[in-house]
Structure formats: structure tokens, C-alpha cells
Design brief:
Elements lengths: L28 H9 L3 H13 L3 H5 L6 E2 L2 E4 L10 E4 L2 H12 L20 H11 L7 H13 L4 H7 L8
Antiparallel strand pairs: 1-2, 2-3
Helix pairs in contact: 1-5, 2-4, 2-6
Length: 173
């Protein structure tokens, strides 16, 4: 409402985005999990939770105990890319991770920082160790989310089911 002229960005060429389709291949999975098992429990649990829920890494890192009710984790709308709350239905394996973490927890955060008050803030060093140990190239934490969706597709889930489980808003990518 301040400027009434033409959009000055209309002449700027958008940076082309390369879509990524990388996900954990069946022959890579044993190496990935063996490398993950060599890490401290915090990293094992965090990256397994990313894979088991298909949630964005930042949402898993910021997971709080008060967001979990039984077998449902509700990501608040303010933390979700769509701006709307997302209910993530937890598998038995995800619930087992949470049960173990809850027994050892004295924090409001499921994945508390060992250094400061709040959730862990960076995963780069742990991720680098895991992928190097597993011999995985060009594989980043967001690819765990793609792995979740890709294996749903391979199992025959519909695109609507996959999109819903990933928290995509209808009509979004």
C-alpha cells in the first residue's frame, strides 16, 4: 500500500531451481543404518524420527513433548510451511523412540541441545559423519523426507495420501 507503481522485480529473471529426487536406495539403506548406529543415541533418534514421520528436519528438531498426544504429533501451524497445523500419525517404531527419550528427558524438547536451553540447532557435523561413513554422496537430511514419500509411492499409496502424510496443502508441491 506504500508504493503504487509497477513491481520493480518484474524484470528480474528468476533463479532456475533444480528439483531434487534423491532418496535412499534399497542398496544404500543397510550402509546408512550401520553408519547411523555408530552415532550417539540423540542423532540415531533424530534422523530415524525424520525418516519414520516424513516431517521436515527443522520440525523434528523443534519437537516438544506437549505437541505429542498418544500416537499423534501435532506440528503447530506457526512451525509448518503451510501455516496450518499438521497431525503426524506415529508408527510403533516412532512411539518406541519417543518412549525411550521421554524416560531420559528433563526438557520440554524431545531433542534438547546438550549445550544451551532449547532444541538442538545444527545437525551438519553428525550428518557429515553419517554420510561419509556410509559412503553416500549428494544425500542431505531433507532426502529422508523424500525417502519417506518415495517408499509410500512404491508401496502403492496414492499421491493424495502421500501429500497428506507429508503435510502438503491441497494443490501444493
Amino acid at each position: 500500500g506504500i508504493y503504487g507503481g509497477k513491481n520493480p522485480c518484474r524484470i528480474v529473471t528468476r533463479f532456475p531451481e533444480d528439483t531434487r529426487e534423491r532418496f535412499l536406495q534399497p542398496d544404500e539403506a543397510p550402509r546408512f543404518f550401520a553408519a547411523l548406529d555408530a552415532e550417539p543415541q540423540l542423532w540415531q533418534d533424530l534422523f530415524r524420527m525424520c525418516l519414520l514421520t516424513g516431517a521436515r528436519r527443522s520440525n523434528v528438531q523443534g519437537m516438544r513433548w506437549d505437541q505429542i498426544s498418544g500416537t499423534v504429533w501435532t506440528i503447530p501451524g506457526g512451525n509448518a510451511k503451510s501455516g496450518k497445523p499438521i497431525d503426524v500419525h506415529l508408527t510403533a517404531a516412532a512411539v518406541a523412540i519417543l518412549d525411550r527419550r521421554r524416560r531420559d528427558s528433563r526438557s520440554d524438547w524431545v531433542f534438547p541441545s546438550p549445550v544451551v536451553s532449547g532444541p538442538i540447532s545444527t545437525v551438519a557435523a553428525a550428518w557429515r559423519r553419517i554420510t561419509q561413513r556410509a559412503g553416500l554422496e549428494n544425500f542431505n537430511p531433507h532426502d529422508l523426507r523424500r525417502t519417506f514419500g518415495s517408499y509410500q509411492a512404491l508401496a502403492g499409496s496414492s499421491l493424495v495420501e502421500i501429500g497428506r502424510s507429508l503435510g502438503h496443502a491441497p494443490g501444493s508441491k
